[in-house]
Amino acid sequence: MKRYLLAPGPTPVPPVILQAMAQPMIHHRTPEYEALFAEVRRDLRTLFQCGNEVLMFAASGTGAMEGSVANTLSPGDHAIVVQGGKFGERWAEICRAYGVRVLAVTVPYGKSVEPEMVAAALRQAPETRVVFATHSETSTGAVHDIQALAGIVRRTDALLVVDAITSLGVMDLPMDSWGVDVVVSGSQKALMLPPGLAFAALSDRAWARVPEARLPKFYFDFAKERKAMAGNQSAYTPAVSLVVGLRESLRLILAEGLPNVFARHDRLARATRAGVQALGLTLFADHPGAACTAVKAPDGIGGDAIVKGLRKRGITIAGGQGSMKGTMFRIAHMGHVEVFDVLTALAGLEMVLADLGHPVTLGAGLRAAEEVLRK
Ligand SMILES: *Cc1c(COP(=O)(O)O)cnc(C)c1O
């Protein structure tokens, strides 16, 4: 059966990247690797819109999240965590694992934080050292206003650390000009790579904090990694094949141009939203982002039945995580995706809903999406 991968990570890997990664292994302490690494380091700074070095680790995205906690805080420090989904909650879990005291600013699943809530929390807890937030909350499809949060956090001594794992390369996040202190991401979302690379970019303000941060760390020691990168190397054996793939991924993204990449994701997201709404379905998020569309499962039909029905037809989407399981489904449109990927998802959805006995007009979702996409 022909298969379509439309889940919010891992995402489809373009053939040119697969081919590059299938070449014979090269050694990482060689001029060949150093030429590759220099190009990747330069292009990562463009992608992150960051003047400083972008650190790279062999880990899933969570590794860079853990490193961001360990390199900015000391035992017993206070942090504010913006929570509105599973990934916001992950920041709090990592902090607690390291003995950091967490003040959670929580919004219901599907909502985006009101920036004023964070301002109020900072007034209530002026000892806060770091505010952790999520740009694109993949578990609910919601986007948080990072620019507004940066404006607020900037007026205090706290750092703003942002999980951009499904927003980097999807939505604009100019970290230097917005004043975001740490941006973390991973390889298997909009970077169109297999899982296994984690990234962290730090502002000057964040780097100034690193020597004071006394939480334990070894592999995710940011200062050590930055020192190795200054010599165009990594502290430990890099995920060589993934870095080879990353060069191709960055070439693809920068050849398309960041503004065009963001516009493409926005258009696909708008088409997907129009399509599901034309089928009478409701979006899960009040302020949906461009990475993935979370949709409430219709009454009487669990989200998991829809996921399963699509899987039988060769299409992989995602259900709900944690307590959202069964209540929703998520169609991703990030990375190596185009018009006919979202149309495939919507066509499959229409057929599966009809199979499940839900009243749908076949073609209604496609028609609404096509109206958006033809413009
Ligand atoms: C996928 C994802 C992660 C986590 O990533 P892993 O690579 O599984 O560690 C974290 N945050 C967000 C918002 C994500 O979408």
Question: What would you note in describing this structure?
Answer:
The chain is of the alpha/beta class. It folds into 2 domains: 15-255, 3-Layer(aba) Sandwich (Aspartate Aminotransferase, domain 2); 257-373, Aspartate Aminotransferase, domain 1, CATH 3.90.1150.10. The protein is 43% helix and 15% strand. It contains 14 helices and 14 strands. It has a 7-stranded mixed sheet with strand order 2-10-9-8-5-3-4, sandwiched between helices. The chain has a 3-stranded antiparallel sheet with strand order 11-14-13, with helices on one face. A two-stranded parallel sheet has the order 1-12. α1 packs antiparallel against α10 (240-256), α5 runs parallel beside α6 (146-153) and α11 (258-278) packs antiparallel against α14. The chain is globular and about 60 Å long. 49% of the residues are buried. Pyridoxal-5'-phosphate is lined by residues 8-9, 60-62, 87, 134, 136, 138, 163, 165-166, 186, 195. Pyridoxal-5'-phosphate binds at residues 8-9, 60-62, 87, 134, 136, 138, 163, 165-166, 186, 195.
Structural class: alpha/beta
Can you write the helix and strand succession as a string? Answer: EHHEHEHEHEEEHEHEEHHHHEHEEEHH
**Share of helical residues:** 40-55%
Task: Report the portion of residues in β strands.
Answer: 15-25%
